[in-house]
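Predict fold of VC0807 family protein; 211 aa.
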Amino acid sequence: MDHQPFTPPHLPSLLKQAVPMLIEGVFAPLAVFYATLTLIGLNGALVAALAWVYLGMLWRVVRRTRVPGTMVLTAVALTSQAALGFWTGSAVVYLIQPEVGTICLGLVLLASLRLRRPLLAKLAQDFVHLPAFVLKHERVRQFFVRVTLLWAFVLIANSAGNIWLLLNGSIGSFMLLRTVAMAAAMGLAIAVSVWGFRRVLHRLNLDAATA
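Predicted 3D structure, encoded as tokens:
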């Protein structure tokens, strides 16, 4: 093992990169969908939400910049949502799909632990570049196991609550409460993840200094 010190990016720079990606890939498609739904109806809203994501990907391809894995996942999810939305003609069916998909993603995160390949170790590369020697360190591997468990719980619990809201309230109240709940849950999970990661890297650098 190559014991080298590694200094992570400062929190403001991480937030500067992560927050726009979350807004573009998670919150903006929902906002575009709901705004268009109130103006021109369901079919137009489905097209607008899809157009938002695919134009964002096309813009990156034209500029020859990397398309984040999180954006690809969003595009795949929205495409399947829109297909069922067009087929059923139901906004509830469209809106409940991402919640079911998020629960499935939580289960995939848990399954990745069984395969000893925590999925978050791969997705984390969208937000911060980690050298190979950092990813291979046992402390870092254990961190990604713990943080994968955290995110699996947050995703499954949050989406289960959102499904209850959707089935027991109006679409407008669902959109508002879902956004608030998602921002709070993801904000807390991100804060815990960043704190834990910096703590692990601090210990890693202590090990390197001792070596």
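Residues 11-210 form one domain.
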